[in-house]
Each structure stands twice: as C-alpha cells, then as structure tokens.
Write a structure and sequence with these properties.
Shape of chain B: globular
Distance between the termini of chain B: 36 Å
Helix content of chain A: under 10%
Largest sheet of chain A: 6 strands, mixed
Strand content of chain B: over 45%
Structural class of chain A: mainly beta
Oligomer: heterodimer
Helix content of chain B: under 10%
Largest sheet of chain B: 7 strands, mixed
Number of helices of chain B: 0
Strand content of chain A: over 45%
Order of helices and strands of chain B: EEEEEEEEEEE
Order of helices and strands of chain A: EEEEEEEEEEEE
Distance between the termini of chain A: 41 Å
Number of helices of chain A: 0
Number of strands of chain B: 11
Chain lengths: 112, 114
C-alpha cells in the first residue's frame, strides 16, 4: 500500500538557519504530494502541494520539488523564523483522490 | 466561513463506555472525512462521506466504530465499548467535490480512555 516516510525528528534550529525536512514515499500510481503544517492548538493546514513530477510547490518561503526518480518531496526553507515552529506532515494522495496518507510528522522548533 | 468545528474538544471516558463526537463541516462542502491521530504519528484515514453517503471505510474502522452524516451536513462518529487503544485525537476535515488541495481540518477531539 501507499506510505510516506519522514526524517526522524524533532528538529531544533536557530532563527535564520536553513531547513530541510526529508520525505520519501511509496505509491503504486502517480500521486499528488502535499506538505501540511500544524501549529500548536490549531488544525492541520495545507502548506504546499505538487501534482506531477518536477512540479515545485511553494508558500510562505517554503519549497518542495516532486522528484519521481527518487520518490521524494523534501521541504526546504532558506531562513526559518520563530513563527515557523510547528509540526510538519508530508502526505500523498493517489490519483483517485479519496484520501490522504500522512507521514509521521516532524516537530520543528526555531529558537530566537 | 467559520471553518470546520468539532465538539467536544476533549473527552475523558472509562473503558467500556460509548462516546460520540460531532463534526460540523464548512457549509458548502459536500465531502467530509474522519481521521485518527495518535501521539507522535500522522493522521490515519478512517472514513469519508460524499453528502450523506459513506463511500469508503478504512480497515482501522472496527465494528465498534460507526459514522453517520444523516442530512449531508454535520457528521457524528460513535465508538462503542471504548478501549484504551482508542485514545487518540479524532480529526474531521471537509472539502468541496473531493479537492484535496482545498481540504480543511478541524482542531480535533482528544479522546482519553481510562
């Protein structure tokens, strides 16, 4: 079945540091890929998405590129802020689109 | 647009009791999803509705679990004879016409089974 694997966390960075959170996936078809973010006390929010190979999703300074050859969708940001502290989830949806399969999440803490 | 609302936010119950959670989706959304999230894990799909029809159920949804969406608006998730392993955050989400890029999640109901 489909699965998503994220880098083991938690991740602690200083403000303005570079961020990479690794995500790899296993899927039988051609999935759409997503990054969701969960801020403390809030619901999951879509951060960015990519629907086909080589697409780059971006939002709020975060980027991720759909790499079919390495089955990866790594999340990157050049300069993190304290307000980026949250849990980040990588997810996929098969082309039928009825459900999301999530990774285990990565806790990011950014210190001033 | 008030977002997806879930009630209650927290529920503590004793093993063997029945519990029911409610989800109010965004009003024009015809799809409603239930997920379960345990500590340190990502959400796991349970079931989803299109309008009032329950179209898919995960194998995670044992026969102690039942979900309804009687008029295609709000939904309820009932767990009968709760077990300690049912302790988790239960998340509801809604979307319009199955557009997962426009999926909105509620803040969840945290269930603790003692």
């Amino acid at each position: 079945g489909d699965s998503v694997t994220q880098m083991e966390g938690p991740v602690t960075l200083s403000e303005e540091a570079c961020l990479t959170i690794n995500c790899t996936y296993t899927a039988t078809g051609y999935p759409s890929l997503f990054w969701y973010v969960q801020y403390p006390g809030e619901g999951l929010q879509l951060l960015l998405k990519a629907t086909k190979a080589d697409d780059k999703g971006s939002n709020k300074g975060f980027e991720a590129t759909y790499r079919k050859e390495t089955t990866s969708f790594h999340l990157e940001k050049g300069s993190v802020q304290v307000s980026d502290s949250a849990v980040y989830f990588c997810a996929l949806s098969e082309t039928s689109g009825s459900r999301l399969t999530f990774g285990e999440g990565t806790q990011l803490t950014v210190n001033p | 647009d008030t977002g997806v609302s879930q009630d209650p936010r927290h529920k503590i119950t004793k093993r063997g009791q029945n519990v029911t959670f409610r989800c109010d989706p965004i009003s024009e959304h015809n799809r409603l999803y239930w997920y379960r999230q345990t500590l340190g894990q990502g959400p796991e799909f349970l079931t989803y509705f299109q309008n009032e029809a329950q179209l898919e159920k995960s194998r995670l949804l044992s026969d102690r679990f039942s979900a309804e969406r009687p008029k295609g608006s709000f939904s309820t998730l009932e767990i009968q004879r709760t077990e300690q392993g049912d302790s988790a955050m239960y998340l509801c989400a809604s979307s319009n016409r199955g557009r997962l890029e426009k999926l909105f999640f509620g803040s969840g109901t945290q269930l603790s089974v003692l």
